[in-house]
Specification:
By secondary structure, the chain is of the alpha/beta class. The protein has 16 helices and 12 strands. It starts with 13 loop residues before the first strand and ends in a 10-residue tail after the last helix. It comes from Onchocerca flexuosa.
Length: 409
């Protein structure tokens, strides 16, 4: 099925209600689905893979690898295992997280957690010795595939941070240009011109089709696929928060979880790229407005988002969404736009403002600092990863295979 974010791949099993794929011969059986991964610098591409995986069954279990395993097979992760465990637990399609899941997925692991099969994106994951990490479950017919989200990857985000440019920003007047840009996204010359950091990998023999940089093009359908929300009920206490929510991280999640506790329905206002750049400067935000919207929508505490929310909380905003509580964090300093009044003046005067201690000091700036401090490690990691994938891709093409098979380098 062709759409912006993809649906589940082909399978011989029968689909039950809600599109869930039921095992042939036993349509009443609850289907348990396994996913696993590093989930480092969790972004909406990871969340979308888990959303699609949940469509295959009733209960989604996600295994997350340890720092030690990732270091051995790929290189150093940006986030610690405890941070990654917490982030995956917060995604709304995830029912259970297995901490310290093995890097290579086996039938033994599926059996241990009573899972029918595992689901992975249509890219390849290789172990340190160059072997497909899903070879065992593929061989036994317990592997399903979903579409990888184009236009977003951890490699791309790291590149944006290292490059320190604003070419990724979305401007209010460039929406009409998206269609024209899309025609050039797959061409090497345009990709290199738009994202020079991909030249880090210019010494490769071939381009990996799985690790690459492209432009994410937003649409209402992609947002609807992530929203899956409900309208507020008549007596719901509606809470409003706002900010950039760039490089969505553990601090954001902790803040939103605390904000949700203040009421029944949490609305998150997300500032546009120009507003964020005005109060943060540099090449902020690292992620575009629509990328940040999808990242926020993926998490359990969030009921609704306001796309391109006003910097100042106004009377019109409060009435439009029937907001009873406005919340803001206290851990990090406020970002004040030059020459602008206090954005929370009105809710403060109305006694609607609540201050939240999220318990976390994490910020987008800290993430960028981690990347810059370990720049060589991450560049070398990404270069090795793409070169291994490119070698596998070349072998697949030479063998004229239609599907991925076990290939050792």
């Amino acid at each position: 099925m062709n759409n912006d974010f993809g649906d589940f791949g082909s399978d011989s099993s029968k689909k039950g209600s809600r599109g869930i794929i039921k095992p042939a011969g036993n349509p009443s059986k609850s289907v348990r689905v396994w996913c696993d991964g590093c989930y480092d610098m969790v972004h909406f591409g990871h969340a979308n893979q888990l959303r699609q995986a949940k469509q295959f069954g009733d209960y989604l279990i996600v295994g997350v690898h340890t720092d030690e395993e990732i270091e051995m097979h790929k290189g150093p992760p940006v986030f610690s295992e405890q941070e990654r465990y917490r982030m995956i637990r917060g995604i709304k399609w995830v029912d259970e997280v297995v901490e310290g899941a093995p890097y290579v997925t086996t039938v033994e692991t599926l059996n241990k957690y009573n899972c029918d099969f595992c689901v992975h994106g249509d890219d390849i994951t290789l172990s340190a010795d160059g072997t497909d990490t899903y070879a065992d479950v593929k061989k036994c017919g317990r592997y399903r595939e979903c579409m990888r989200t184009s236009g977003i990857s951890t490699t791309d985000l790291v590149g944006r941070m290292l490059l320190l440019t604003k070419t990724h920003h979305s401007f209010a007047d460039d929406i009409a240009k998206h269609e024209e840009r899309a025609r050039f996204l797959s061409t090497k010359n345009f990709m290199f011109a738009l994202y020079p950091h991909v030249l880090l990998f210019k010494d490769r023999k071939a381009v990996s089709p799985w690790t690459r940089v492209s432009r994410f093009l937003p649409s209402t359908r992609t947002i609807m696929q992530f929203a899956e929300g409900r309208s507020p009920r008549e007596h719901d206490v509606i809470v409003y928060v706002s900010g950039s929510f760039d490089l969505f991280h553990i601090g954001h999640l902790c803040f939103l979880e605390e904000a949700r506790k203040l009421g029944d329905y949490l609305i998150v206002g997300i500032h546009n790229d120009q507003v964020v750049n005005a109060y943060k400067g540099g090449n902020h935000p690292i992620m575009t407005l629509h990328e940040r919207v999808l990242s926020v929508l993926a998490y359990k505490p969030v009921s609704e988002v306001v796309i391109g929310a006003p910097y100042i909380v106004t009377e019109e905003l409060i009435k439009r969404f029937n907001i009873q509580i406005v919340a803001k964090g206290i851990r990090l300093p406020d970002h004040q736009m030059p020459g602008e009044p206090d954005p929370f003046r009105l809710p403060r005067e109305k006694n609607m403002l609540r201050l939240i201690d999220s318990g976390s000091n994490m910020s987008a700036d800290q993430i960028i600092t981690r990347i810059i401090d370990h720049r060589n490690d991450y560049e070398n990691r990404n270069r090795r990863k793409e070169c291994r994938e490119a070698d596998v891709y070349e072998k697949i093409k030479n063998l004229n295979l239609d599907t991925l098979q076990t290939i050792s380098i």
